Amino acid sequence: MMNFYRLNHRLQQMTLKILKNLCHRHDIVIEDGDLKIILHLIKDNPHTVLNDEYTPILLSEISQKTSQKTCLSFKPLLDQSYLLKEIE
User: Which residues, 6 or more positions from 41, have their beta carbon under 8 angstroms from its beta carbon?
Assistant: First the structure.
């Protein structure tokens, strides 16, 4: 069973470097500026990552703050749970 408190804490500690490395390992190319925006969105509302029901909200926010292309590039990190696996 996941400890949401611990996962939330790890999400809050996530750095741009960690997110960039995660994208690189999965052949996802996103500009640094867009990654900073995504990281900010995740830290503002970690439930969007920890709870599948909120994932569409995060993706919508990403497409609004960056672009649809960036959103589609980032989506596999959530769909395949790469981001959750990174912080576990």
Answer: 48, 58, 61, 62, 65
If one counts the domains in the chain, the total is: 1
pLDDT over 70 (residue 31): yes
Residue range 56-74: average pLDDT? 95
Contacts of 52 (CB under 8 A, 6+ apart): none
Dist CA 82 CA 87 (whole Å)? 9
Domain that holds residue 49: 4-87
CA distance 11 to 32: 18
The tokens describing 62, both together, are 């990403």
